[in-house]
């Protein structure tokens, strides 16, 4: 498949889990892919090797999405491969806790907001002057933005709801440049942080129409679709990739 041939993608938080699934699929469909990561040098290197084995260019940049200087430096480094066609905002933090839990670490909650919301907003603003007209901006949200299946999700869900609101507004802002802006909201996806054989997986699957976990590749396929010409008239849209969990 080469629907994204000669395109260049920049993915935040791309070394593992859903991010790695996105990076692999974009590269499989022909895009050159630069991604940021925070901690795993070895996994990042292995992913770059995989990208390049597919005949496209790959680059990993160590950067904290919640740090303004890190993001600006990463974007400057990314554009060594040329202008950006596709931006995927995947990096995020998940910190839960009920509103009446006095043990909650407020500093960690603020960091979550900095990464999940302010970091995304700064990434978009920084990359727009370096993005080709007709580009694609795709953010990874959460079905928690519109439903709360269990207690303690308020702070995290609020960050993802803010990201969905940004998506709708940015679609209006950037329509004149033919840049589409969309958000994907994953459901239960099999990752290290939320394994399909985890202690609560059987209970959580009761809400999923398809009765199984999704895979990172499922999110990668959705991202690749929204990044392609097949989705050129789709913008300001929320796409749930959740096996019917939100049905």
Automatic annotation (TrEMBL):
Ordered alphabetically, the record's keywords are: Oxidoreductase
The domain of life is: Bacteria
Reply yes or no: does the keyword Cell membrane apply. no
Gene3D superfamilies the UniProt entry points to: NAD(P)-binding Rossmann-like Domain
Q: Name one Pfam family in it.
A: adh_short_C2
Sequence similarity: Belongs to the short-chain dehydrogenases/reductases (SDR) family.
* Xref: PANTHER family: OXIDOREDUCTASE, SHORT-CHAIN DEHYDROGENASE/REDUCTASE FAMILY (AFU_ORTHOLOGUE AFUA_5G02870) (PTHR43639), SHORT-CHAIN DEHYDROGENASE_REDUCTASE FAMILY PROTEIN (PTHR43639:SF1)
Its recorded name reads SDR family oxidoreductase
